[in-house]
Structures are given as C-alpha cells and as structure tokens.
Write a structure and sequence with these properties.
- Helices cover 30% and strands 15% of the residues.
- It is built from eleven helices and 16 strands.
- The strands form five sheets. It has an eight-stranded mixed sheet, sandwiched between helices. The protein has a two-stranded antiparallel ribbon with strand order 2-3. The protein has a two-stranded antiparallel sheet with strand order 9-10.
- Helix 6 (237-254) runs antiparallel to helix 7 (260-282) and helix 9 (303-320) packs parallel to helix 10 (345-369).
- The model is unreliable at 3-11 and 30-41 (pLDDT under 50).
C-alpha cells in the first residue's frame, strides 16, 4: 500500500542532473524527446482502490463531539453514584489523574435519568431521546481510553493515533487506502463548528507526511463553503479549461514521475475545476423534502440545532455522492459551543444535546431509509470523558481513563453494549486503546492495518503504529 521506497529519497534524480548540467540544455532535450514519444498520462492518486478484503463500509462519517461529553450522563449509567454524592471518592481508587481535580472533590451523581430503549433494552440518558430510538442500530463501547488529560493531545490521539501533531489523520489514511469513488467532490470532507475549530486545529484533519492530496477539504458555512473555488467573472469556462490543459501538458513534460507534491497539486487543479460544476449541487438543500428537513430539525427554533442539522444532512448527501470520509466537529471555539463542562454541567449538556441529538438520530434514520447505512460506517466519539467527582461544585473535569464511543452501520452489529467502566465510571475495565479504535475503523472499511503503511524517514508508518486489536464483537 506504500509507494516505492525510492519515492522518499531526496537524492538527485537523472532529471535533476539534466536540469543542473549545461545550463539546463539537457532538460530541454529530454522534454523534446518526451513530447515526441508521447508522455504517459499521470495517474490520479485519488483513483478508487480495492479493499484488502470484502467489507460493507464504503464511506465513513465521524461525528466528533469536541470537549468531552460525560459518559456517566449520556450512555454509561452509574446509579451507585447517588449513594456517594457529596462524599469523597473511596481511598481504594488511589490518586485520581485529571487536569484540574485530584479526587478530593465530592462525587456528583448524574442529574438526568436513564431508561431502557429498543429491543436490546439499552440504557440511554434522558439527554438523548432521539438517539435512544436508534439503539438497535448502534454498538456502544464503554471502555475506551486516551493518554492525555489535555484537549489537543487527546484529540490528536483520537484522530491520528499519537498525542503529538505531525501524523496523518484517520480520514487521510482511509482515503490513502481506498482512494475516492467520486471524481467531482473531495475524497475527505471536514465540517467544523462555525464558531471555531477544535483546540487541535488543522492537524486533526491533515495528511502530515502522506501526500497532500489526502488531507481533508474544509467546508465552511454559507453560500460559498469552499473558498476560491470559482474563478473571476472575466474567466470563461473555455478559457479556464485551456489554461488547465496547458498547465497539465507542461507539468507532464517537466515533473518527474513519483513527485507526489506535484501530482497532488495537479490533481487538486483538476478536482477544483470539476467541483465548480458539482459542488454547488451537492451543498444545495433546496430540493430536499420538507419531511427530510423536519426529520433533521432544520425547522427548529434553536438556531445552533438548525446549523448542526444542516451539516448532518450534508454528510448524507456527500456519502450519497461517493465522498469517502466525512468529518463533522460538533463544538469548537468558545466554551459555550463545546462539551467542556467544568462547571454548570446541566446547562452545558442540555444545550449541547439539544443541538446534536435529533440531527444525529436523523442521520442514522435517513441513511437507513435510503439503504446507505449498510455501506456507511458512522462513528460518534470525543477525546475523553469526564470525572464522577465534581469540579466547581456542579461540573466535571477531564477523564481519559474510561469513556464511551459508538459505531453504527457499515457491518456493525447494533443493539449491543461492549465493555464497561468501574462502578463510578472513572476507569475502563480492560480498556480499548486508540490503536484498537483505529484498527476497528480500518477493518470496517476493508483495510488491513498492517498492510496500510507508508515509508517515512526509513520507517513503515501505520495509523495503528505497532498494531491495534480489532474489536471483533462490534461486527455482526
């Protein structure tokens, strides 16, 4: 799955020598010979590639809840907390590792009730009444862990497998492995919160040392979601096409085969040209029925909910049109638009769930109604969970030691809950690492984590580093 190791070398190529020798006349001669013989068309790095093995998921939608939703207030009920409310954590827990609390603050029971839903009888908080109706299509995994109590490093680990920036995101790895089934839209689309990006910023959807063509394409709210997509009014379609054709010929004659940066740039020019015709239709919701718009909550009086509903509906439209990986960030910018409830837990989570619960459930319902859920893996998660002890009397601190994420569609066996945390919801029992999380996503997409590698600085780099364990029980 990696390019030839020679592509990594920065040693001078024969073309470099021809360019440098004799004031470049050797390179001119080479161009003439290439033009005479007919230079082969450059391969499209985003061309669709086969899966390593048969799998149902052809696209992935990752719903990233920025800031850390509380697992014990959403999908991991801990009724025993009421018995200890107002008391310190038992000494048996030892020193609690968190960012702003040390375990000496009192236990805070959940202010919400949990009920059982679906044929599976899965417990879900009152915060999520719409998602609760979809539990038979969802596999909840309650024992994930990350390794940092700080937002950005934990985000990097969830998105790239490492707590440091500079490694490709999971979306980049999936598009590197599978290419794109759409010739007119980006392979990897990113839709952040309009109020601001997550603390981790662009490295969360970057391609790092992978060719730049595999990085996420940022879509912004409004009538022009992609900046600089359209040329000026003075440039006709014929004139622009002629420019691109000339540029393509010049690049084919002058660019060494295997120069990934140039290949990515050439591909981006062509993709941008095609997107001028196709992207406006993909983001135009005018033809969606009133029933669909109501399903997502686009008629709701709460404006932030309407905005998130729009992005969820766009995600369905993108995978419908062959986009390989869609990343939606729910939350970002000011704390009022994040799940980071260090105080006023109830006000924060009431607001964030009102914004997201109905649109997320609608996305699952809509995909299922259209026969797309089987071929689309939907992932819901965050960088960590929150502590059972209080912070500021009515909030919760960061907890990377045990939290919930869920999977749906794409061959996932719904209606089940895997893993657990202790009776307080603080520590995962036999926790799953982010390497396991990523191995599971790749497996759903038909990619073998050990075959998906890229030679960088003399090392076979992989999303899962030295390897993760696929959570096999997730799948039917």
């Amino acid at each position: 799955m990696s390019p030839d190791p020679g592509h990594i070398s920065r040693a001078a190529s024969r073309r470099d020598i021809l360019r440098r020798a004799g004031n470049g006349f050797g390179a001119l001669a080479l161009q003439s010979l290439l033009a005479r013989d007919g230079h082969a068309a450059r391969a499209n790095p985003l061309a669709a590639k086969p899966q390593h093995f048969g799998a149902k998921a052809k696209s992935v939608i990752f719903l990233f809840m920025v800031g850390g939703p509380s697992q014990i207030d959403t999908y991991d009920p801990k009724p025993g907390l009421k018995k200890f409310e107002g008391q310190r954590m038992p000494e048996s827990f030892g020193k609690v590792v968190s960012q702003f609390t040390d375990g000496t603050t009192p236990v805070l029971a959940s202010p919400w009730n949990f009920r059982q839903y679906g044929q599976s009888g899965t417990w879900v908080s009152d915060l999520m009444p719409h998602t609760a109706k979809c539990v038979d299509d969802i596999c909840f995994v309650r024992n994930f862990i990350t390794e940092s109590v700080v937002h950005a490093p934990a985000m990097y680990q969830v998105m790239s497998g490492r707590i440091l920036m500079g490694f490709p995101s999971v979306g980049s790895w999936v598009t590197y492995g599978l290419g794109s089934s759409s010739e007119n839209l980006p392979a990897y689309v990113v839709m952040p919160q309009p109020e601001g990006t997550p603390e981790g910023g662009p490295p969360m959807w970057g391609s790092a040392f992978l060719p730049a063509v595999y990085q996420g394409t940022l879509l912004r709210p409004g009538a022009k979601p992609i900046l600089h997509l359209h040329p000026g009014a003075e440039v006709s379609d014929q004139r622009q096409r002629a420019r691109l054709d000339l540029l393509q010929k010049m690049n084919d004659l002058d660019t060494p085969e295997g120069d990934e940066e140039f290949s990515a740039r050439i591909s981006s020019y062509e993709l941008a040209y095609r997107m001028q015709s196709h992207a406006p239709e993909a983001v135009d919701l005018a033809k969606e029925s009133e029933g669909t718009r109501r399903l997502y909550g686009m008629d709701h009086e709460f404006a932030p909910m309407r905005e998130f509903a729009t992005r969820c509906l766009l995600a369905r439209r993108f995978v419908e049109r062959g986009v390989r990986f869609v990343q939606i960030y729910h939350g970002g910018g000011p704390l009022s638009f994040q799940w980071d409830a260090h105080d006023n837990l109830k006000g924060n989570h009431d607001r964030m769930c009102l914004m997201s619960d109905q649109p997320v459930a609608a996305l699952l319902t809509d995909l299922k109604q259209r026969g797309l859920l089987d071929s689309t893996l939907v992932v819901w998660g965050s960088e960590f969970g929150r502590t059972p002890m209080s912070q500021s009397g009515n909030g919760r601190d960061h907890n990377p030691n045990g939290f919930t994420m869920w999977f749906a569609g794409g061959g996932v066996k719904g209606g089940q809950v895997l893993g657990d945390t202790d009776d307080f919801g603080l520590h995962a029992i036999d926790g799953w690492h982010m390497r396991d999380f990523h191995a599971t996503i790749l497996h759903a997409a038909g990619l073998d984590q050990h075959k998906l590698w890229y030679l960088h600085n003399g090392r076979h780099e992989k999303l899962t580093d030295f390897g993760g364990k696929v959570i096999q029980k997730v799948f039917a």
